[in-house]
Automatic annotation (TrEMBL):
InterPro entries: ClpP/crotonase-like_dom_sf, Enoyl-CoA_hydra/iso, Enoyl-CoA_hydra_C, Enoyl-CoA_Hydratase/Isomerase. Gene3D superfamilies: 2-enoyl-CoA Hydratase, Chain A, domain 1, Lyase 2-enoyl-coa Hydratase, Chain A, domain 2. This is Enoyl-CoA hydratase family protein. SUPFAM superfamilies: ClpP/crotonase. Belongs to the enoyl-CoA hydratase/isomerase family. It comes from Streptomyces cylindrosporus.
Length: 244
């Protein structure tokens, strides 16, 4: 059973997270399949750009708590998106939580419908948004991140665009993306690759500087008794004991 759908139209490869049973959570298997699909696109001269989207009403629910990828595996996936010599465009029509927000931040362009909602829910299960901060911190408003990282509040697509998590939001995400994809199809592959390298240099600096520390921190937090209780409470649909 494949977890990544693939389709192509006029040089744009669409990769769809296709694991609706767990709301497209980042399992080890899904992360591996997505990495393989991106590598295929990088080598394919007929692919000008990649659209990353989803099936179901959730783009990505974050880490799969029953089958999570190793922290370094998620770091490698995020870096792969950032380093890919072709633009990666996120197309979101559903909800995004925790690690899914790291995928959005790694993409070069991200658009969502106004039906989408967003939340950094890590603090509510006793962990922190560690490795996803590698692409998020250089690209997103720091004051807004302080609020949403610390509270786990849900916010909408216009707010996500305002703080830099999204490029744009609209009622019809495909209408929003139509001129974007047209522009990418009109652009020379070499020009796109070099321009993307200019744009991602600061993001890659954060990977070089902080990836090892944040990977170790993620592993430590997820292995803690507090996180085990938080994840158990989440899976049992109850409040953890620290809720006042």
């Amino acid at each position: 059973m494949t977890l990544i759908g693939r389709a192509r139209a006029r040089g744009v490869e669409t990769l769809s997270l296709d694991s609706p049973a767990n709301r497209n959570a980042l399992s080890a298997a899904l992360v591996g399949e997505l990495a393989d699909a991106l590598a295929d696109c990088a080598k394919d001269g007929d692919v000008r750009a990649i659209v990353l989207t989803h099936t179901g009403n959730t783009f990505c629910a974050g880490a799969d708590l029953r089958d999570p990828p190793p922290p370094d595996g998620l770091v490698q996936l995020l870096r792969q998106i950032v380093e890919l010599p072709k633009p990666v465009v996120a197309r979101v029509t559903g909800h995004v939580r925790a690690g899914g927000l790291g995928l959005l931040a790694a993409c070069d362009i991200a658009a969502a419908s106004t039906a989408a909602t967003f939340a950094f829910t890590e603090v509510r299960i006793g962990v922190a948004p560690t490795v996803i901060s590698l692409p998020l911190l250089p690209r997103t408003d720091p004051r807004a991140l302080a609020r949403y990282y610390l509270t786990g509040e849900r916010f909408d697509a216009p707010e996500a665009a305002r703080i830099g998590l999204l490029t744009a939001a609209g009622d019809d995400v495909d209408a929003v993306l139509e001129p974007v994809l047209d522009g990418l199809r009109r652009s020379a592959p070499e020009g796109l690759a070099e321009t993307k390298a200019l744009l991602t240099a600061r993001v890659l600096e954060s990977f070089d500087r902080d990836a090892a520390h944040l990977t170790a921190l993620s592993a430590r937090l997820f292995a803690s008794p507090r996180a085990r209780e938080g994840m158990t409470a989440f899976l049992e649909r109850r409040d953890p004991p620290w809720v006042l």
